Every structure is written in C-alpha cells, then in structure tokens.
Amino acid sequence: MLTEVAQLVLNGLMAGTILAVPAIGFTAIYAVLRFPNFSVASQITLGAFAGYVANVTFGLPAPVAVAFAFLVAGCSGLICDEFVLRPMRPTGPLAAAIAAVALTIVLENVIRFWFGNDLRGYDLPVLRDWRFAGLRVSPQQVENGVIAIIAMACLFGFLAFSRMGKAMRAVADNPTLASIKGIDSVTIGRMVSFVGMGLAGLGGMLLGLDTSIDPLTGFRAVLTVFAAAVVGGLGSIPGAVIGALTIGVAEELSLLVLDPAYRTAVGFFAILLVLTLRPRGILGERAF
Amino acid sequence: MENYLIAMLVFAGLYGLMALGLNVVWGMAGMINLGLVGFFAVGAYISALLTKVIGMPIAFGVVAGAIGAAGAGMAVALVTAKLRGDYLAIVTLGFSEVIRITASNEIWLTNGTDGISGIPGPWRGEVTPEAFNLVFLAIVAVVVAIVVFLLQRVRHAAYGRVLRAIRDDNQVAAVAGKTVIRFKVEAFALGCAVIGLSGALYGHYTSYIAPDGFVPLITIYIVLALTAGGTGNNYGAVIGSVLVVFFMESTRFITEVVPGLQAVQVAALREMMIGGALIVILRLRPGGLIPERLPRIDLPEANLTEKKKAT
Predict the structure, then answer these.
(1) Does B89 touch chain A (CB under 8 A)?
(2) Which CATH number is correct for A2-115+137-277, 3.80.10, 1.10.3470, 1.10.150, 1.10.287?
(3) Is the CB of B269 less than 8 angstroms away from the CB of A113?
C-alpha cells in the first residue's frame, strides 16, 4: 500500500512537471494580457503535431524535435494574437475569450484536415523501466521531466535577468506604470504570446511523448492546465508550477478512490474547491 | 425534402431557445457561459430519464429538466459570483466537460456512451413520422414564442434594467443599492433554465441522446447565433439561430463543391467555417445584424418639459 502510494505520488510529480510547462504559458499570457487565452488548447495540439513532423518525418531525436514544437506553436500563437485576438481586446476580456474558443475550433480542424483523426505515436527507442526500492520509472518520463525543467529554468532566467523579461514582469505588475516608464505594451504582448504559446506547444509534445497524439490532445489536456493555473493563482508563474504539481499528484492519488475516467474531473473539482476557499490561489495573482 | 426542412426548423427553434438563454446570461447580465452544452445536456438527461425510466408525463420531464439545469447554473454562478468573469469562463468550460465525462461513465444511470434511446415524444407512434415532425415544430414554435414574450417582459421590467446596469458597470449598480451577486446568480440560473428546457425538448424530438451529441462545438453554434443576431436582443437571438442552422447546412453543400475530400476533411472544413464565421462577426460586426436597442426610458425631466409645453 505504501509503495503504491509512493508510486502514485512519483507519477504525479512527473506528470505535474510536464503539466507545469503549458500551465506557465497560459498563466503568463493571463498575467500580461489579462484575458484567459483558451486557444492554448489548440496550440498544445499544434506543438504536439509539429514535434511529430520533426521527429517522425524528418527523423530528429525527441529532445531536438521539442525545440521545433516550441517554435511552431510560438509563431502560431503570435500570428493568431496579432490578427485575431489583439483587435478584440479593447471590447473587453470576455469577447477576446470567446474569440479564443472559436480560434481553438479553427486551428484544431486545420490539424484534423491535414492529419485526420488517427492516433499517432512518436518514433522513440523502447527502453526498459528503471526500478529502485519497489518503484518503477520509465527513462522516457525522466527525459521528459528533464526537458520540462530545462525549459522552465530558461524561462525563469529570462524573466529574472533579461531586459525583456523584466519589462514583461513590469507590465504584468502595473501596466500604467510600465507605460510611463516607456515600455511598449504591444511589443511585450507579442513576446508573451510567442513565449506562452511556445511553452504550450512544447508541453503538448511532452504530453504526447508519454502516450500518443490526435487532434483532440490539447482539448483533453486543457482542463487540467486551467486547473493548475487557477489552483496556483491565475497569473502567477511560480503558482502555475506549484498548481501543476498539486494537480498532478491529486490526479494520480484520485486513482485510489475513483474510476480512471474521472481523472479530468479532479481538476475541475480542484478549481471549485480553490475558488470557494481561496479564490486567489495558493500564491496569489502576483506574476513572479 | 420537406421533412428535412421541418427538421432544420425544429433545430433552429431549439438553438433559438439556447440562444435566448445565453442572451439572458451574456446579453442582459454580461456574464460569460462557455459551457452551454453542459446545461443543455443536464436538461436533456433529466427529462429523458424521468419520462423513460420512471414514466412521468413529458411536460413534467421538460419542466424538471429546466429546473435541474437552473440548479446547476445557480451552483456554478455562486462559486464564481464574487470573482472576475474570467473565472466563470473557466468554470463553465470545465462544467460541460465534467457533465460529458459523467454521462459517459455512469453507465447504470445514463447507459454510458451508448446513450439513451427510445425517449418518448409527444404523440410519437400515434401519428405518422411526418405529422410528428409538424407537431413538434408547432410545439417548439409555441415554446419559443412564449419564452421570447416572457424574456421581453423581463427585459423591459425594472429587473432587466438592473441586469443591464450590472452588465455595464456593476459598481454603479452596487452603489445604487442593488445586490449585484443575487441578481447575477438569478440571471445565470434563469438563462440556464431556458437552455435546459431546450435540451429536454431536444431529447424528446430525436428520441435518442448520447454524450457524443453534447460536444463543445454546440456552444460555438449558439454563441455564433447570438452574436450574429445581436447580443442583448431577444428577437436577434432567434433570427441568428435560423441563420446559423441555414449556414451550417449550406456548408454541407459548399464542401461538396470541392472534389477529392475525405469525410473527415469535409467535417473539418465545416467546423473551420463555423469557427471562422464567429471570428469574422466578432471582428466586423460585434453588435450583430440587429444590434440591441435600449428600451426608451421616460425621464422625469422629459415629462416635466412636456407638461410645461402643455400648459
């Protein structure tokens, strides 16, 4: 029993590490642009498929293909924001949120148009699971976790030390003050759309490496991503990491008492619980 | 062909009801509901189960479906009432997914992904299928007319004015002594009741419901219908729904023109057009084809000047 729980917690932490990547993307966009960009769902799918093309069609190894997933989803996020979402934002955050849902439908079907509904798997070496102290862990999961941690470390470095990263935090913290200081909020908005959606795409590929991908990959994952962001505090980047780990572990532990089909529902109930008890989430809404 | 047209009109009516429900929530009170299809499913399942399994009369099932959806709406609205609208967007989106998961897995209750078949319909079996279609169209038309009438009354009443005030600036409404949270929760529940009503009727019309029938795309149809018709306008909601059904059916013919497409590509192309249409309308005509016109309010000063003129 104890080993079983330990195994579930371990699985949850590894799943949470991967989940943190798209959750950071979603929450960072919220922090700067102040609207929930639901098109994160289709960018997750897009990243997964971009990585698939790089990995299977061009034969690149997975850790390299991941960079491709980041770039494609990031560019797509930037273009979509520039031409679809940014013009709507003056009307109000909710109009932009609705447009983002419509955008998700469009992008998802662009992918379906090219690739069809079939499940696809990445081209990966088959490796034996590692065992220690009665616990199992697959080398692929460890590799995914390491990629996720490297991506997050890069992001935190970018936000903490680069000029652009500092400007981004300034806009998230106080847009008026930032604009008085001469920070161009439009440029920052473009940057955050690129980085945020890039992370979503990268996360999508990491999710797909574990299982398989199809045009609904992102849509299935997105409720968990929202849950991670809300539980940690919508708009808080460290919060997204903590939220993702919490949701990851909670989902795995729920297997002890619930049918596996209800995994996604765990995220929803976590959202309800947090909103009732502590609406600002674990870390509040401060971006960094 | 006639049957096809009648069936399309019935669907336009059902979508119209949902758009009317969304109009209360979004058009009048300014709250978002991206999980419409979840409340639609709640209404459909409650009514189907009550009439088929317990054998209640259809009218009773339909009312119970509407009440059940209102209850679910009230719960969702209460959780997010004090928070920014973004949270309501996330919670409603999640709600519809959880309903779909539950409907797929609680096999003892909902028969899982196989769905519930053989849901009774008014006079189904007693009249020819063509006549049933017509009867149902009449029922839907009457229900839509009644709902439009009642919602117009709400809109013109003091109650509707409070909702508009909350939509435009909830702080001002609060300063004016209105209990913003109560109004928001009530409006959300009222809107969900209408959506649940539509779901219940849907089940009795098609005689079959399954989780696959309650996909998020339906939410997009309805948002498209309301935005196209005119947010805030009850007549616009109904007209928009007719347009959306017409548009959806015409995309079927448009995709036939392009040769060499597989079935999945045709489906993808149609969904792309629906999503694209919503983006284009939000961008170019955010007020819709028939923008909301605010009811004329007789201000005391205006009365005063008229009286002066008279004297």
Answers:
(1) yes
(2) 1.10.3470
(3) yes
